[in-house]
Amino acid sequence: MKNSARLLVRKYSWQYSGMLAWLIQRVSGLLLLFYLFLHVLTINKLSQGPTAFDQAMSLFQRPAFKLLEIALLGTVVLHALNGIRITLIDLGVGHEKQRQLFWLLALGIGGLIFLAGAIPIFLFSILRI
Amino acid sequence: MNSVFFKVSRSAPGGASKHVQSFRVAIQERMTVLDALFAIQREQDPSLAFRYSCRVAMCGTCAMYINRIPRLACKTGIENLASETITVEPLPHLPVLKDLIVSLEPFFAQWKRVRPAFHFSGRNSQELARIPPASEFGRQAREKRDCITCGACFSACGVTGTNRRYLGPAAINKAYLRLMDPRDDAVEERLRVVNDELGGIWRCHTQFNCVAACPKGIDLTDSIARVKRAMLRPGRFREKLSETSGPEV
């Protein structure tokens, strides 16, 4: 690994993980905003009648969209749990443990919740076993 | 590790023609980055410019961007960096004067805005001030008064890099200590400055970069968060509840 890359990994893996958490919160927030537009656009199809809506929904049943659904689940879980971390910090709870909150709550427990949702979607909607 | 490769940022006076110059430095036991810079200046390039004073991490003069982290050169042991190549750059977010020397003018401009000096109308009073160590001010001051104005937090902060009006962590920490001090009475002026919508406490994004960078281990984000919470309860500082050992902010 290049020296600069090694330095960055060392910097943000623990000591500066608050910055990493902030960056992830901003990026996941923007991704969710993009999803929200897509969601409103799909719901809007209802105003064009049931056929248009069904057509849009059939598009989302495709395996490629199911993969995006898994990515959406990960983004929502990460954003929500990191949001809880930030709220706790703002309230003065667990301020000294902000790094642990990020790695254990947002990424650790978040990762478990993600896997609990992502594995069934992958098995039953993409592989269709 | 007998020798280490140093990549030092060089520039002409005024920060012009910036480039990186490499030096190989023979390492001795317990050598610091400041010691290595002296070795470079003494043995390889006498024109290398850097600033230092006390050499024992109490003056805050030798803050630099070492391996992409703002640190005090005199406090940073080369062995502790555990790196074959060490990059040394001037502090970010501050104008470079030459090589590793930056102007702390933007930092102190914000520092001055919060009126850092002690303001006490009863300065002729013969009464002794009593600060119970268990009171909130007693406890907070013990942990947060050690700032050496090195500018490491200011250069590590993600907000100061994009917002020139932002006070920065050190200035807000200073304002917090003065606001909590039961003897100080310049409360209104400081509250006006820290509550500034575009440059005050509300610009802090809780990135914790300042806490990670502070060489004195001051929890600066905690000070900012405490001022934020206190601002939601008008009169908190005006009443100077800190005199008692009452509930925390």
Strand content of chain A: under 5%
CATH architecture of chain A: Up-down Bundle
Count of DSSP H/I helices of chain B: 9
Cα end-to-end separation of chain B:
49 Å
Main traits of this protein?
heterodimer; A: 129 residues; mainly alpha; 3 helical TM bundles of succinate and fumarate reductases; 5 helices; 0% strand; B: 249 residues; alpha+beta; Ubiquitin-like (UB roll); Fumarate Reductase Iron-sulfur Protein, Chain B, domain 2; five-stranded mixed β-sheet; two-stranded antiparallel sheet; 9 helices; 14% strand; disordered C terminus
Structural overview:
The complex is a heterodimer of chains A (129) and B (249). Chain A is mostly helical and 129 residues long. Chain A has one domain: 3 helical TM bundles of succinate and fumarate reductases (Up-down Bundle). The termini of chain A are far apart. Chain B folds into two domains: 100 residues, Ubiquitin-like (UB roll), CATH 3.10.20.30; 138 residues, Orthogonal Bundle (Fumarate Reductase Iron-sulfur Protein, Chain B, domain 2). Chain B has nine helices and seven strands; from the N terminus they run E-E-H-E-E-H-E-E-E-H-H-H-H-H-H-H. In chain B, the strands form two sheets. Chain B has a five-stranded mixed β-sheet with strand order 2-1-5-3-4. In chain B, strand 1 and strand 2 form a beta hairpin. In chain B, helix 3 runs parallel beside helix 6, helix 4 runs antiparallel to helix 6 and helix 6 packs antiparallel against helix 7. The C terminus of chain B is likely disordered. The interface between A and B is medium-sized, with 20 and 24 residues.
